[in-house]
Amino acid sequence: xxxxxxxxxxxxxxxxxxxxxxxxxxxxxxxxxxxxxxxxxxxxxxxxxxxxxxxxxxxxxxxxxxxxxxxxxxxxxxxxxxxxxxxxxxxxxxxx
Length: 96
Prior knowledge:
Elements: E1 6-9, E2 15-18, H1 26-32, H2 44-52, H3 58-61, H4 66-70, H5 79-89
Antiparallel strand pairs: 1-2
């Protein structure tokens, strides 16, 4: 069954259609996207999920296993290679 889309308005007044509770305002997502760093390479859901968990640096990311990261709502397997490469470029890796 196809999800029903409903018109939403974010706290900044942007209007957008949303089909689930986990989507955020696409205009705000674009405005908040970092211009550099590993977070800038990730999709909006993955980036938002990490930031929500307080994981906003590679040092913090390196304290987690890949399995722990995948358990975070909004993170999918396609994000792991991006995170892994970013960690390796800084001489870091996922925890054990």
